[in-house]
User: Fold this.
Amino acid sequence: MNQIVFLTGATSGIGQATAYHFASKGYDVILAGRRVERLNETAAEIQNKYKVNTLALELDVRDRQAVSDSLNHLEEKWAEISILVNNAGLASGFDFIQDGHIDDWDQMIDTNIKGLLYISKAVIPGMIRRGKGHIINIGSTAGKEVYAKGNVYCASKHAVDAITKGMRIDLLGTGIKVTQIAPGAAETEFSLVRFHGDAEQAKKVYKGFQPMTPEDIAEVIFYTTTLPEHLCINDLVLTSVAQANSFYIHREA
Assistant:
């Protein structure tokens, strides 16, 4: 039986690209996401293209009960998850904190922090029983520094950074690896979501430089899982050559 990788936020961007990449290497893939039509299309395409098994799991990681019910009732052949990629996350809004919208804050906190915790809580016990596994949390350069109008989004990704460190400490001796990958600017639906569907505003984020692609990041995610059993990449910050950190991007005129 192939190893199983479980990915959240698998209907687009980094999550979707990572699902394709692992499948191309012979992994069976559980894809979780909210957009059921796109989820099913992706799962079917991966299965047809790479001849691996796929499971499409319609799931909102913010729903604690749904996460518990879904993951605690997986068929036996799907329950032995080797790799968990906690990718589901978003930025919603780009406002000074005094002008921020509480609904945006709740969405980011519930998805980026609580959703990651709910999924991890459901998957970790099985990894402990088997004495092995790899958890990969997708953070951000926004979890390394704070920028204007980033406030709550940055806070949520700082939380991912802290939770990842805490996981690594608490899971010592279990055989489970814990990795954080913190990407910088990647051209995905991220900015479109952040600006609530304003495509023109989203385009400006990537203007004048070559950002990363989801496939770039997927390749690095996969690489972290290929090391010998006694090695673990703890924390990896990833940007394009044009970006130094959240503040500095070289843009062509």
